[in-house]
Structure formats: structure tokens, C-alpha cells
Design goal:
globular, single chain, alpha/beta, Rossmann fold, two-stranded parallel ribbon, about 45% helix, about 260 residues, binds NADP nicotinamide-adenine-dinucleotide phosphate
């Protein structure tokens, strides 16, 4: 039963980790609903998911917009049927020092990384509980445990996400629904490209100073995707993994003598 194709929603699937997760489920023959704001990029991912062997549905989604979340969830369920797995992956990081950040930047990081996952979970969780089956996966960050300068709102949002994931776990205990937090370390994606490139050296130096940057290794997005697939592939009656931390392999001590 665990190997039977299921239906998964992946938010923020137009690039990076979300695209890799969609492809990984596609390769298992799953029905995959992908959402993000850049629809043309979603179409490229959709072709790859289909080529990998999955049935795919792509639809514009802004996780911070209630109407968009409503429209996406209704369309996905109409097209692919009941949703078995929700992967809350959409995220952003508008790097700025607190003293220099605007209200809009701080608000936007909280909305995308925290509220967006809440909005999507609130919409799909009741159907899972009713059917007594489902997995809600949260793509978190090691920034929640090890906050970094220049990422105040992002780190705060990811810390909040861990609290939210834990409460979903408590509120669904015994229902057949799991809440799984994947705490992700440095990963190659478009995430870093959006950091202010002219300040990159200063930012990395500050992370090194505070001991939150131990090396310069990045793992491929596929490594995170594999962790997600493995976590939801275990039958709920067999085990319940609530938190998984994934870090780049092949690390060596690079800083600090
Ligand atoms: N890369 C890392 O080192 C790292 C480390 C820890 C955790 N993570 C987490 O991994 C997740 C994926 O990030 P990534 O590394 O794959 O970066 P990425 O390549 O920049 O992907 C981010 C995805 O989120 C989507 N997104 C952003 N705002 C959205 C919104 N309002 N509504 C819907 N989708 C939205 C983007 O699509 P559109 O722009 O098309 O909407 C994009 O598909 C994030 O939650 C991030 O916090 C990444």
C-alpha cells in the first residue's frame, strides 16, 4: 500500500528543491500538483515530471494570497482527486540587516515562509483527517536552530514553522495523518542567487564570525527530495518520523584551525 501511487501537492515547485521533489514523486508514478507564481517555469517542471513517469497538474499559486490558495487547492483536487501529501516548500529570503530592512521585506519573508504554509495546511488538512490518511511535510531550515545575521525574518519564520509543524503533529495524533518537518541545510538552488551579491562576502563573514558557517558545501536539491520521498514512503502504522535534518555530505573542517 505504501508503494501505491498517491497524490501530492508541492508548493514552490518552479525551481530548486520544490522542482526536485516534484520530479522525485513523478518518478514513482505519483499524481503531482505543482504550484508557484512563475507559471512558465512551472510548465518546464511539469514536462520533466511527466517525462519521469508522473501525472502532473500545474497551476499558478501564490501561497500568501488566500484566493490563490483556494483556487489552487480546488483545481488540484478536481483534477487529481483527494490530496494524500502536501509539501509546504515555497520559501524566500530577502536578506537585510534589521536596521536597514523595510517593513515590507520583513512582512514578506514571514508571509511566504510561515503564513503561506499555514494557509495551505489549513485548506488541505481537514480532508486528510476526514479520510484518516495523509502527510503534511514542511520544508524548514537549519536557520531555525542556528539563526543567521541578515536573515532575521527568514529565521524567525522558519522557527515559527517548526512550532506550527509540531502543533499540527499534536492535533492530528491518532488520525492517520503525519506532520513531518525537514530541516534543510545549505542546498544548491536559486535561493542564493537572490541574496545581494555585492554584500555576499560581508554576509558570509558575519556567519563565520557567529559560528553558523562551518563550511562552503552545498548539497543538490535532489538530496532533500530523497529525504522527503523516504519520509512519506514509510507506512504510518510502521513509524512516524517527525523531524529530519538534512545537511551536505563530504564535509570537512574549513574554518577555525
Ligand atoms: N537553498 C537552501 O540553501 C535552503 C536551505 C534551507 C531551507 N531551504 C528552503 O527550501 C525551500 C525551497 O527553496 P529553494 O532552495 O529551492 O529556493 P528557490 O529555488 O528559490 O525556490 C523557491 C520556490 O518558492 C517559490 N515561491 C516563492 N514565493 C512564493 C509564493 N509567494 N507563492 C508560491 N511559491 C513561492 C518560488 O517560485 P515562484 O517565484 O515562481 O513563485 C520557487 O519555486 C524554501 O522553503 C527554503 O526556505 C533552502
Amino acid at each position: 500500500m505504501a508503494d501505491a501511487p498517491r497524490t501530492v501537492v508541492v508548493t514552490g515547485a518552479s525551481s530548486g528543491i520544490g522542482a526536485a521533489i516534484a520530479q522525485a514523486f513523478g518518478a514513482l508514478g505519483w499524481r503531482v500538483a505543482i504550484g508557484a507564481r512563475r507559471v512558465e517555469r512551472l510548465e518546464d517542471v511539469a514536462k520533466e515530471v511527466e517525462a519521469a513517469g508522473g501525472k502532473v497538474f500545474s497551476h499558478r499559486l501564490d501561497v500568501t494570497d488566500s484566493d490563490s490558495a483556494d483556487a489552487f487547492c480546488a483545481a488540484a483536487r478536481a483534477e487529481l482527486g483527494a490530496v494524500d501529501v502536501l509539501v509546504n516548500n515555497a520559501g524566500q529570503n530577502l536578506s537585510a540587516l534589521v536596521a536597514q530592512a523595510t517593513d515590507e521585506e520583513l512582512k514578506s519573508d514571514l508571509e511566504v515562509n510561515l503564513l503561506g504554509a499555514m494557509y495551505m495546511t489549513r485548506r488541505l488538512l481537514p480532508h486528510m483527517v476526514e479520510r484518516r490518511v495523509g502527510d503534511v511535510v514542511f520544508i524548514g531550515s537549519d536557520s531555525a536552530a542556528n539563526p543567521r545575521p541578515w536573515q532575521s525574518a527568514y529565521g524567525a519564520a522558519k522557527a515559527g514553522l517548526e512550532v506550527f509543524a509540531r502543533v499540527v503533529e499534536m492535533e492530528t495524533e491518532g488520525t492517520g495523518v503525519r506532520s513531518i518537518l525537514i530541516r534543510v541545510g545549505p542546498t544548491a538552488s536559486e535561493f542564493g542567487n537572490r541574496m545581494p551579491q555585492d554584500k555576499l562576502h560581508t554576509i558570509l563573514e558575519s556567519w563565520r564570525y557567529w559560528g553558523v558557517m562551518r563550511h562552503l558545501h552545498w548539497m543538490p536539491a535532489e538530496s532533500v527530495a530523497r529525504a522527503v520521498v523516504r519520509a512519506v514512503g514509510v507506512p504510518v502504522e510502521e513509524s512516524y518520523t517527525s523531524v529530519i535534518e538534512v545537511q551536505p555530505g563530504g564535509r570537512k573542517k574549513e574554518f577555525g584551525g
